[in-house]
Amino acid sequence: MTAAPVKRSEMTADTVDYDLGWETRWDDMRRYGPTARHMRNIVTTLVSGLNYDTVLDVGCGQGTLLSTLMPLKPQARYFGADFSPKGLEMARRRMPEVEFLQLDLEKGALDQRFDLVVCTDVVEHIDDHDTAFKNLAAMTGGHILVSTMQGRMRDFEKSVGHYRNYKYGEVQAKLEAAGLETVRVVQWGFPFFSPLHRDLLAATGAHGTEGKFGPGRRLISELLYQLFRLNSWDRGDYVAVLARRS
């Protein structure tokens, strides 16, 4: 299995910032943040019961989602791919038993198909997302789960690199256009995540979501996590689409 390495000279200022962000800004947010934790709940719920022996997390970052998936099927083989060398370095330290590869989803795909592909909070950050969806489909041998944001995009989301938030039904349509069949769609978040929490983040510039989480921020995150348990799975702006190869 091979992937074309991303040369440092090919990285723009934005992608260099993304690379360095894993060390300084996003690690604790992905581990303790209430939205990220609920994303992992949605993913594990949707993939539980599926039959798979190989799993690829595209846009794995520092590996938090993979570490959540692995106990579901310890006997499966797990792989992670990301654009960021720093994120991959952190993931390798935490999970040496997983094979991690550098991949630019706009430029290509790994030369292997996987029983289960997951791609969370990634496609909204990619300019050429049509190519990204085609590359995701090319690596899917069984099921794929893509999650992202839909609905109105707030200014703070633009500041963290969103090219778009998707229209309702658009992610499903992209996967179907790439030759995949929809199995289930979850639209999570109403009312406490979207619109209330996202509007609050927009009003405050999303301060407090990045960097190290001390005891106080972890407590607030835990309280929000419990509040978010009341959110609907049928209405909201966080969308997760499970599809399969026909």
How would you characterize this protein structure?
The protein has 246 residues and is of the alpha/beta class. The chain has one domain (8-245): 3-Layer(aba) Sandwich (Rossmann fold), CATH 3.40.50.150. It has ten helices and seven strands. The protein has helices at residues 13-24, 27-32, 34-47, 64-69, 85-94, 129-138, 155-159, 170-177, 192-204, 215-228; strands at 54-58, 77-82, 99-102, 114-120, 140-149, 180-188, 238-245. Strands 3-2-1-4-5-7-6 form a seven-stranded mixed β-sheet, with helices on both faces. Strand 1 (54-58), helix 4 and strand 2 form a beta-alpha-beta unit. The two termini are 24 Å apart. The model has no long low-confidence stretch (mean pLDDT 91).
Descriptive labels:
single chain, 246 residues, alpha/beta, Rossmann fold, seven-stranded mixed sheet, 10 helices, 20% strand, globular
Q: Label the CATH architecture.
A: 3-Layer(aba) Sandwich
The overall pLDDT, averaged over residues, is 91
Q: Strand arrangement, largest sheet?
A: 3-2-1-4-5-7-6
Q: At the first level of CATH, what is the class?
A: Alpha Beta
Helices, by number, come to 10
Helix content: 25-40%
Distance between the termini: 24 Å
For this structure, the CATH topology is: Rossmann fold
Largest sheet: 7 strands, mixed
Roughly how many Å is the radius of gyration? 17 Å
Instruction: Count structural domains.
Output: 1
Uncertain spans: none
Can you say what the CATH homologous superfamily is? Vaccinia Virus protein VP39
Number of strands: 7
Structural class: alpha/beta
